[in-house]
């Protein structure tokens, strides 16, 4: 019996070799998943004389000459230029700015269908970077309709060759009558194609609508696989039991509340009540708390930790960086006052203690902390990854709080959970609004809460767009910074990358809202931290100010030193990458200049500017851009005009969906979510359907004993996907 995992060579014979060798298409499944990047409509094909310059053209033509050469501007790159001729004998030039693949595929004599925008260049016609299909124009019976698939280039195999291989493999699979992994009843309910029909429609479509139906089925499968795995994970959590933690009355929490100089917001009260109720149950809490920077999440978490201490157990707070861990300890100790001086002279009755545990502490410091943790001396432990290490033992760990989730993987969180005798309760906090698709998928195994309002009385952050090209605007920006500094405040200057020599962004930066979604405009230099530091030190408006830098290539000790100096007010202007994005809290910083703001995603800009205006004076964010593109300026203007992070997250989605449609490239390989776009709100519907279906399937058949095909697909996939998502930031 063969099947989806059969080696291609067993079905196709020797001709499989080229596919396997160059594209690593080893199995039948690999080949079917090698989806066309697009389709060319042969009915739309014309002759060059029928098209005007500036039009998108489809034409059948033959390569008459071609040659690759190095590019003058970038000597490492080779470009490929060819001349094609149509049936009338009329010619046009082709140009590819990266020769790879094209020079092998478009050798003289090759006939193909080309698609691209017709330009005029040096008196002739030219098409830059056309799509093309080397389909089999003499075998119309290969294609059920006018569409010819265009695949990623495979050396020595034409597009038609791939289509033929697929067609053969599909026939072979049909003959085997392998059941569809999704129950027929579910397929019928959602009007979904069978799996084989879906692949057929994608590789051999009758028309575009047919291909779209196939894509819908594959998207549904991707959603279902993730949702079934999540449903299983949820079922496992539901079955877990832990110690119910019932806080003492009149304990730490009560005294803490009495001293709070402000009222909790309604949201804080509601979320806190939910959390405290969950802590007192014997089923471990597993909750995600979303809320803008400054919405008071940390306070909610601290109240939960105090309740835990009141119940006689310990709480751990996991922070993504040393700087943040230290900051948490400082602010928690400040908020607790003598309630954090348990066992010390001047400590309050029933007080607890707070300990810090990070990788850069000395051995002696660590030993002391470890001892206090294992004896239970310390009620609240704040730390970085160091907390997860084997040697850290708790007396009785009842609650784990994870700050800024997106920098921790599920494995790390789980490792910390293992440190409790019984599974601890888990609260995850994130300041980045998570789109609904992502929440349902990546965090779909958790319950969620949101803090939507900011505490009252906080002056909002004002943001302005600064077109750098306009005379005087940039000077005015630096003057504004100088004014803030002379008023006793501090400033951030954020750059998209570190230095001139590297094109990469800062790896340590949490790029959850990937700058990659920002349309990149070629040709403009991107400002880096290193050069900006130098130029600001020469800037007349900033003369005499103390200007320093911070970025991910500096050592942890150097970063900490700079951050400590900035917190202490010993630095006026801090030039940095987005390493400062997460949680850094310097209330005296009141202005942030974001250079090349167009290089950042919407949510990321919002996250960044949340760093200013933490104090009572309000904050100012200046978004500097060189861009002249209307869409880019529009996007930045919207960020400048809106302060609601949730609204911006939605906007982010909308704009990306547009990007998806324009740049539709369905060929992404490597991750399991290939077609489903978590950044695409249209896929919400499919994810919701799949979630309901998954819940029903798992309720009836928790181990999928009745659905072996589906079970096989699911094994191992979700964690990989989540890891991939978290890696991306
Ligand atoms: P987050 O963790 O969501 O960024 P924090 O809990 O750190 O927010 O709160 C930000 C600031 O607002 C802190 O200085 C905190 O003391 C203060 N704060 C929190 N809740 C309130 C409230 N209900 N009223 C006034 N200030 C508050
Ligand atoms: Mg916080």
TrEMBL record:
Residues 473-659 form the Helicase C-terminal domain. Transmembrane segments: none annotated. Keywords: ATP-binding, DNA damage, DNA recombination, DNA repair, DNA-binding, Helicase, Hydrolase, Isomerase, Nucleotide-binding. Pfam families: DEAD, Helicase_C, RecG_dom3_C, RecG_wedge. It catalyses: ATP + H2O = ADP + phosphate + H(+); Couples ATP hydrolysis with the unwinding of duplex DNA by translocating in the 3'-5' direction. Residues 278-451 form the Helicase ATP-binding domain. It comes from the Bacteria. InterPro entries: ATP-dep_DNA_helicase_RecG, DEAD/DEAH_box_helicase_dom, Helicase_ATP-bd, Helicase_C-like, NA-bd_OB-fold, P-loop_NTPase, RecG/Mfd, RecG_dom3_C. Plays a critical role in recombination and DNA repair. Helps process Holliday junction intermediates to mature products by catalyzing branch migration. Has replication fork regression activity, unwinds stalled or blocked replication forks to make a HJ that can be resolved. Has a DNA unwinding activity characteristic of a DNA helicase with 3'-5' polarity. This is ATP-dependent DNA helicase RecG. The lineage of its organism: Bacteria, Bacillati, Actinomycetota, Actinomycetes, Micrococcales.
């Amino acid at each position: 019996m063969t099947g989806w995992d059969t080696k291609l060579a067993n079905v196709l014979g020797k001709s499989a070799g080229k596919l396997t060798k160059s594209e690593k298409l080893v199995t039948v499944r690999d080949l079917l998943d090698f989806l066309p990047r697009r389709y060319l409509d042969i009915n739309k094909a014309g002759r060059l004389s029928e098209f005007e310059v500036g039009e998108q053209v489809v034409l059948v033509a033959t390569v008459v000459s071609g040659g690759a050469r190095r590019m003058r501007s970038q000597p490492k790159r080779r470009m490929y230029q060819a001349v094609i001729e149509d049936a009338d004998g009329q010619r046009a030039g082709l140009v590819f700015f990266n020769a790879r693949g094209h020079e092998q595929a478009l050798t003289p004599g090759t006939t193909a269908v080309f698609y691209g925008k017709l330009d005029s260049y040096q008196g002739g016609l030219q098409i830059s970077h056309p799509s093309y299909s080397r389909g089999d124009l003499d075998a119309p019976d290969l294609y059920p309709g006018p569409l010819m698939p265009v695949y990623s280039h495979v050396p020595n195999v034409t597009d038609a060759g791939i289509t033929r291989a697929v067609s053969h493999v599909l026939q072979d699979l049909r003959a085997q009558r392998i059941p569809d992994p999704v129950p027929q009843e579910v397929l019928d309910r959602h009007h979904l194609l069978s799996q084989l029909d879906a692949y057929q429609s994608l590789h051999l479509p009758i028309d575009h609508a047919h291909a779209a139906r196939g894509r819908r089925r594959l998207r549904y499968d991707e959603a279902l696989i993730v949702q079934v795995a999540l449903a299983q994970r949820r079922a496992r959590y539901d079955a877990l039991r832990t110690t119910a933690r019932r806080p003492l009355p009149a304990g730490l929490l009560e005294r803490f509340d009495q001293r709070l100089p402000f009222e909790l917001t309604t949201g804080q009260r509601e979320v806190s009540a939910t959390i405290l109720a969950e802590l007192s149950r014997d089923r471990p809490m597993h909750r995600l708390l979303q809320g803008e920077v400054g919405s008071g999440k940390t306070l909610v978490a601290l109240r939960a930790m105090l309740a835990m201490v009141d119940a006689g157990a310990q709480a751990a707070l996991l922070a993504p960086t040393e700087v943040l861990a230290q900051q948490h300890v400082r602010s928690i100790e400040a908020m607790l006052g003598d309630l954090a001086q348990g066992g010390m002279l001047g400590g309050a009755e029933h007080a607890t203690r707070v300990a810090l545990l990070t990788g850069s502490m000395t051995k002696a410091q660590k030993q002391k902390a470890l001892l206090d943790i294992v004896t239970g001396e310390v009620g609240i432990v704040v730390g970085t990854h160091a907390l997860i290490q084997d040697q850290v033992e708790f007396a009785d760990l009842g609650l784990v709080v994870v700050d800024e989730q997106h920098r921790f993987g599920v494995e790390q969180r789980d490792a910390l959970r293992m440190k409790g005798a019984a599974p601890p309760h888990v609260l995850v906090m994130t300041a980045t609004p998570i789109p609904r698709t992502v929440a349902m998928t990546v965090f779909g195994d958790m319950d969620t809460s949101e803090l939507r309002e900011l505490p009252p009385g906080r002056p909002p952050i004002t943001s302005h767009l600064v077109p750098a090209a306009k005379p005087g605007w940039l000077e005015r920006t630096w003057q504004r910074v100088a004014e803030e500094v002379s008023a006793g405040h501090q400033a951030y200057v954020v750059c998209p990358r570190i230095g001139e020599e590297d094109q990469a962004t800062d790896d340590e930066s949490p790029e959850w809202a990937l700058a990659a979604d920002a349309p990149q405009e070629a040709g403009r230099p991107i400002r880096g931290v290193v050069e900006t530091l130098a130029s600001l030190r020469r800037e007349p408006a900033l003369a005499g100010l103390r200007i320093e830098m911070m970025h991910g290539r500096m050592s942890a000790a150097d970063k900490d030193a700079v951050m400590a100096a900035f917190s202490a007010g010993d630095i006026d202007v801090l030039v940095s990458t987005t390493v400062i994005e997460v949680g850094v809290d310097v209330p005296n910083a009141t202005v942030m200049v974001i250079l090349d703001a167009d290089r950042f995603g919407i949510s990321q800009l919002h996250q960044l500017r949340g760093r200013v205006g933490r104090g009572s004076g309000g904050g100012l964010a200046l978004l500097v851009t060189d861009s002249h593109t209307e869409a880019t300026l529009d996007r930045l203007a919207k960020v400048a005009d809106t302060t609601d992070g949730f609204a911006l997250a939605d906007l982010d989605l909308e704009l990306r969906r547009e990007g998806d449609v324009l740049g539709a490239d369905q060929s992404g390989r490597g991750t399991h979510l290939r077609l489903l776009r978590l950044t695409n709100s249209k896929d919400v519907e499919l994810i919701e359907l799949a979630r309901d279906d998954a819940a029903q399937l798992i309720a009836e058949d928790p181990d999928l004993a009745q659905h072996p095909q589906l079970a096989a697909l699911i094994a191992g996939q979700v964690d990989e996907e989540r890891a991939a998502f978290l890696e991306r930031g």
